[in-house]
Structure formats: structure tokens, C-alpha cells
Specification:
The chain has a 5-stranded parallel sheet. It is built from 20 helices and 27 strands. The protein is an alpha/beta fold. About 35% of the residues lie in helices and about 20% in strands. The protein is elongated and about 150 Å long. The chain has 4 domains: about 120 residues, Helicase, Ruva Protein, domain 3; about 150 residues, Rossmann fold (3-Layer(aba) Sandwich), CATH 3.40.50; about 55 residues; about 200 residues, Ribosomal Protein S5, domain 2. Bound molecules: adenosine-5'-triphosphate. The site of adenosine-5'-triphosphate has 19 residues, from helix 3 and helix 12. Its EC number is 3.4.21.-. Keywords: ATP-binding, Cell membrane, Hydrolase, Membrane, Nucleotide-binding, Protease, Serine protease, Transmembrane, Transmembrane helix. It is found in: Cell membrane. This is Archaeal Lon protease.
Length: about 650
């Protein structure tokens, strides 16, 4: 199969990708088209999809070309003091740039109360004059002089106190403020159509705030309210786009405010913290006419209130995989080249690019598909770059932050990222936390040799296949069935936690009993009184959550084997869902399951025939596709041992 339509040895030979982000988005053409049209027509959008499929990237890309949509008049938002009601500062939006009014403001500055220093200096001067006068006077005039000085002193004290009281009274009046505190302040200058991003949980950033002033929030000591206003993202997004991500964290109260803003196209700001001096301040409604784009994962939509959801015109689900066609593999190659250029990485060899395509298939769960969870692929490419530069796994592990990996490699050193480097990242599982946990668990577990592949045939024992963790690591599960004679017939499920698994194993038990009772199985018949049998099915040493229906076929065979006492071969592991008519149906995670069977050393792996289209790497183990239970039975039971008996 031709992997790419171009021939190359390393990515250096490939053309440079477009610098426009909108051209760099791959596999989401439909979503890009809808978002562009929504922005053109001023509609609100909700983007839903798996992590790392390009939700933020699409919004950022549209933001880059926002000016191409419409004419835009720059504006400035200013805040002014309200002299009548200082707690209600005035916020105004003016078109263009704000020009400060240069006319001198007529502000009456009150007589200030004399400072302590002034009073102190007066006292010293007064004492010096007094001693000089008294020194040169005859004793007879001394008394009169003291009386005059006392009167003058009292007068000075009286005037000082009067001025002090007058000053103090005036200074509590608004027009006693320092002129600088009366000047309007510029809160925001918007020169081009804005795209403002805010996380849904960050209430202050979203809705704005009035800061606390520890000095009471009033001049002359405190900062006046209009200087403490912080605009919210909803105001800064006026005439542009407000992008709110992580909608699952959006408090209901914030949703109400956003709804009001969408309806009224304006919203006032008040202090958010009830214990702060900002809490008593409230502005007039401030214009906020924006296009709202929100994003989150599929399940997050339940966190949104119905009235807000109703206001969203376009709700788009982004794809998490695309068909594995030549055209799409070329797109994946374009993505690899983009990641290398955008992150300043080293070039990749052709084989390494093919390895990335294989990984994209594996992450999509099928040979026919390619994953679009491209953040994961991007992280893997960056990690492979660092491995190529000689960084070790532990160093790389320490550099992962919130799903995002930043390359730590030295970009001046030129090396090539090879297939070997990519494989090392995949095998170590460093690109996924859940994969690392699963790997660790399996490494420990395998030491106990609980799974014994290719052992002698055994009654009631079969090996099923499971996938551990959300990033998929295949594992083998030992299923054991024991039958007990009892007056209380029934089926008991041990170590099976998930509801779906419980239902499907109950179904397997019912089906096995029915098939045995009808004698329709291609197996030697046996007279059993099923009304006196208690069936115990155990997923032995299985401690992680077991769910899904992919072990139904395995459980059914295990029960039939235990009831009829016919041994099952032990050289295979099996996965497949079973319906009540005995058809084996497709399951998920088939490649991870096949890999697990290979790694444990089983000779054969039995899978539903429908899953054959998903198999990526059939080498290293015999893969047996089956469609029905009847087809399956001769493959798994050790009929030779019965005929010998
Ligand atoms: N469709 C895409 N085309 C090209 N690159 C992509 C695409 N999707 C994701 N990427 C790569 O993955 C990175 C992360 O994507 P982005 O942040 O847009 O994902 P997201 O869907 O917003 O994820 P989350 O839900 O976790 O916020 C991008 O910077 C880009 O490198």
C-alpha cells in the first residue's frame, strides 16, 4: 500500500506548510465551515468533541482572520468618577482613541488642616520670640508681656484648630479629591476585532470585578472606585468573539450572567468578593455585544442550562477519526510537517512518518480509520524528537503538563526522528498517564504467572481479553467456571463490576443452559439436571473495573465446558460479544487485545469476523475470525480427549 502520495526520505524535502492557522486545521472541514459561517452571520456556537481534536485551534484560526469579515471601528472603554454617587462610577465606550481633556478642571482645593510639622514649627518660633522678649524686659513689665503673649498664643491656637476642622470637613467632600483622582481612566483600548478567551470557571476574568482598596476606597487616602474597575472578558469581546472553554466547569450563576449579556448586549460590573470594598461598587451597564463560542467534551453539555443552550445557534460535534484514505494520510503528513515547524523540531524520516500513521490507526481503533485526537499525536512527535536528542524517558515524563508536552530538546542540534524513536515513545507509554499505570500494573502482575498460555486443556477455564485504562492497554483475563450441586440453582458472578458485563455474563449463562438443554451444540450430549446446578463464574485476579460485553463468548464457552465437563484448549485467548441467537458480534479495542494475546505468548487469538477490518498488525499470532458459536466450538474444545475416553 502506498502510504503517502509523495516520495521522500525525510520531511525536510516536503514543502513548508501554510502559515495561516485556518489552513493548518486537518480533518474538521465541516466544523471549520460552520464556525466561519456562524461568525460571518453573528451566530453563537458550541463546539463539542474529544480532547485535542482542534476545538481551540479552530477558534484561534478564525480569530486570526476576523478582520476579513467586516469593517471594524476601534473603540476605547473609559471609567469616570461619579461625583454625585461615588459608588456608581461611570463606564463609557467611545469610538476611536480616547483623547484626554486638556482643559484645566475647576476644582476647589480646600484649605488643608495644618500639619503637625507646621504646628511644631510655630511652637518653636513662638518660644524663641517669647524668651527674647522676656530677656530684655524690666521685671515690672514682665506680667503684661506674659498676658499679651498668652492672648496671641491662644489666637494662633484657635485659628489653627478652626482651619483644621474646616479642612477636615471639606476633605470628606468629593471635590476635595486630588485632581488626578478625578481624571477618567482608560480601561481597554480595542484596535482590532477581538477574540477573547476565558476559562468557564474563572468568574472574575469572565465578568469583571471591582478591586478591593484597603484604605476604604475613598480619596484622599484610598483609590477611587472608577480606578479599581477590571473589565470582564465579556466586555473586552465587544464587537468580536468571546471564546469560553471547559464548559463543564461553568458555574450556573455565570451562565445566568452570560445569558443576560447575550439578551441585553450590556452588563454592569460590581465587586465579586462580598468582603471587599469593591462589593459596594456597581457600574452602569457596559456594552458587550459579542459572538459566543463555547467548547467542551460531549458529556459536558449537561452542565449547561437549557435557556443558555437554546441561545446557541450552532452545536457542532467535532470528529475524532477520519477514514484511512491516501488523501487523509497526506493530511496527516501535512500535520506532522506543521508540528515540526511550529515547535521547532528536528526532521522526521519517512519510516517515522509511517509509524505515526500506524499509531493514528491504533488510536482510532481500526485499520480503516485515522485518529483526529491530534494533540496526542503532537505530544508523541515532540517526545520522539527529544528521544532522538538523547533525552531519557524520566526527563520527558517530568515535562508533561495538563496533557500538553513541550519539547525540551536542543533545537540547534540536528538529528533525525526515526521510526525507532517513535516506537520507543509508544512502548514506554509516556504519552499517556493511564497507559503508564496499566503498564506498571501488568509488569507487576505478570511476575506471578497467573496466566498460563498453551497449558494442557482444562475444564471451565478460558482466557478472555480486555482493555485497561482509557488509553487502551490490552490484557488477558482468566475466566473460571465451577458448578456446584444445589437446591438453589442460579448464576453467581465474581469480580465482575460493570452493569453491562453483569448483564452479558448472565445472558451467556442463560444461553449456555438453553443450548445444553436443547442438545443443539455440536458436542457430545450429556444428561444434566440443570435445575440442581449453581454456576459460579469468576474473572480471576481481576481487580480493575470490568465492563462491556466483549467477554460474553468466552464466558459462554467456559460455562458450557464446566457443565458438560469437556476441557477447553488453552492455546488461545478470545474476545467477542454474543447475542441470544449465538452470533459473535464485533467488539472495541481489537488491536490492543490482539497485542496482549501476542505478548502473553498465546498461539491463537479468536476474534469476531466483523472486527477483521480493524486489525492493523496481523503478524506474530494466528488470528481466527468467527461468526457464530457453532463455528467456534470445534476450535476451542479438546474433543480428542473425549473420544479417547
Ligand atoms: N484538527 C487539527 N488539525 C491540526 N492540528 C490539530 C488538530 N487538532 C488538534 N491539533 C493539534 O493539537 C493541539 C491541541 O488542539 P486543541 O487545543 O485545539 O484541542 P481541543 O479540542 O481544544 O482540546 P481540549 O478539549 O483539551 O481543550 C493543537 O495545537 C494542534 O497542534
Amino acid at each position: 500500500m502506498e502510504v503517502f502520495s509523495v516520495k521522500f526520505k525525510t520531511t525536510e524535502e516536503l514543502p513548508e506548510p501554510s502559515p495561516r492557522l485556518i489552513d493548518q486545521v486537518i480533518g474538521q472541514d465541516e466544523a471549520v465551515k460552520v464556525v466561519l459561517s456562524a461568525v460571518k452571520n453573528k451566530r453563537h456556537v458550541l463546539l463539542l468533541g474529544d480532547p485535542g481534536v482542534g476545538k481551540s485551534m479552530i477558534v484561534k484560526a478564525v480569530g486570526e482572520i476576523l478582520d476579513e469579515f467586516d469593517n471594524f471601528t476601534p473603540y476605547t472603554i473609559i471609567a469616570k468618577p461619579n461625583l454625585k454617587n461615588p459608588e456608581k462610577p461611570i463606564v463609557e465606550l467611545i469610538e476611536g482613541e480616547y483623547k484626554e481633556d486638556t482643559k484645566e478642571e475647576k476644582i476647589s482645593i480646600p484649605t488643608q488642616p495644618p500639619s503637625l510639622m507646621t504646628l511644631f514649627l510655630i511652637m518653636i518660633a513662638f518660644t524663641v520670640i517669647l524668651s527674647w522678649l522676656m530677656g530684655g524686659l524690666p521685671e515690672s513689665k514682665m506680667l503684661a508681656t506674659i498676658a499679651i503673649v498668652a492672648i496671641v498664643g491662644s489666637l494662633i491656637a484657635f485659628v489653627s484648630i478652626f482651619l483644621g476642622v474646616l479642612g477636615a470637613t471639606k476633605s470628606s467632600m468629593p471635590n476635595a479629591i486630588n485632581p488626578a483622582d478625578l481624571k477618567p481612566v482608560v480601561l481597554y483600548e480595542c484596535k482590532k476585532r477581538p477574540l477573547v478567551r476565558a476559562s468557564a470557571y474563572n468568574v472574575t476574568k469572565l465578568l469583571g470585578d471591582v478591586k478591593h482598596c484597603p484604605l476604604g476606597g475613598r480619596p484622599p487616602l484610598g483609590t477611587p472606585p472608577h480606578k479599581r474597575i477590571v473589565l470582564g472578558a465579556i466586555h473586552e469581546a465587544h464587537k468580536g468573539i468571546l471564546y469560553v472553554d471547559e464548559i463543564k466547569t461553568m458555574p450556573l450563576e455565570v451562565q445566568d450572567y452570560i445569558l443576560t449579556a447575550l439578551q441585553d448586549k450590556q452588563l454592569q460590573i460590581s465587586g465579586r468578593n462580598p468582603n471587599s470594598s469593591g462589593a459596594t461598587v456597581e457600574t452602569n451597564p457596559i456594552p458587550c455585544d459579542f459572538i459566543l463560542i463555547m467548547s467542551g467534551n460531549m458529556d459536558d453539555v449537561h452542565n449547561l442550562r437549557a435557556p443558555l443552550l437554546d441561545r446557541i445557534d450552532y452545536k457542532i460535534v467535532l470528529k475524532n477519526k477520519m477514514d484511512n484514505t491516501l488523501e487523509n494520510r497526506d493530511k496527516l503528513l501535512q500535520f506532522i510537517v506543521q508540528e515540526i515547524r511550529n515547535n521547532n523540531l528536528n526532521p522526521m524520516t519517512y519510516d517515522a512518518c509511517c509509524e505515526i500513521v500506524k499509531l493514528a490507526q491504533l488510536l482510532a481503533g481500526s485499520r480503516d480509520k485515522l485518529t483526529l485526537r491530534l494533540r496526542k499525536l503532537s505530544n508523541i512527535i515532540k517526545m520522539a524528537n527529544d528521544i532522538a536528542l538523547g533525552k531519557d524517558i524520566e526527563e520527558i515524563k517530568g515535562n508533561i503538563e495538563k496533557d500538553e508536552y513541550k519539547s525540551i530538546g536542543n533545537s540547534n542540534k540536528k538529528v533525525y526522528i526515526t521510526a525507532e524513536h517513535v516506537r520507543k515513545v509508544i512502548e514506554s507509554g509516556i504519552y499517556s498517564l493511564s497507559k503508564q499505570v496499566a503498564l506498571e500494573y501488568l509488569r507487576d502482575f505478570k511476575r506471578y504467572k497467573h496466566i498460563v498460555p498453551n497449558d494442557e486443556p482444562k475444564v471451565g477455564i478460558i482466557y478472555g481479553l480486555a482493555v485497561l485504562g482509557e488509553d487502551g492497554l490490552g490484557d488477558v483475563t482468566k475466566i473460571i467456571t465451577q458448578i456446584v450441586d444445589s437446591k438453589n440453582p442460579g448464576t453467581h458472578l465474581l469480580n465482575i463490576s460493570g452493569d453491562l458485563a453483569k448483564h452479558s455474563i448472565t445472558l451467556a449463562s442463560a444461553l449456555s443452559k438453553k443450548l445444553i438443554a436443547e442438545g443443539k451444540l455440536p458436542l457430545p450430549k450429556k444428561d444434566i439436571d440443570l435445575t440442581s446446578k449453581e454456576i459460579y463464574i469468576q474473572f480471576s485476579q481481576s481487580y480493575s473495573k470490568i465492563d462491556g460485553d466483549s467477554a460474553t463468548a468466552a464466558a459462554c464457552l467456559s460455562i458450557i465446558s464446566a457443565l458438560l465437563e469437556i476441557p477447553l484448549k488453552q492455546d488461545f485467548a478470545i474476545t467477542g460479544s454474543l447475542d441470544l441467537s449465538g452470533n459473535i458480534l464485533a467488539v472495541g479495542g481489537i488491536n490492543e487485545k490482539i497485542n496482549a494475546a501476542k505478548e502473553y505468548g498465546f498461539k491463537r487469538v479468536i476474534i469476531p469476523e466483523a472486527n477483521m477490518i480493524d486489525v492493523i498488525d496481523p503478524e506474530g499470532i494466528e488470528i481466527i475470525p468467527v461468526k457464530t458459536l457453532d463455528e467456534l466450538i470445534p476450535l476451542v474444545f479438546d474433543l480428542d480427549s473425549i473420544s479417547k475416553n
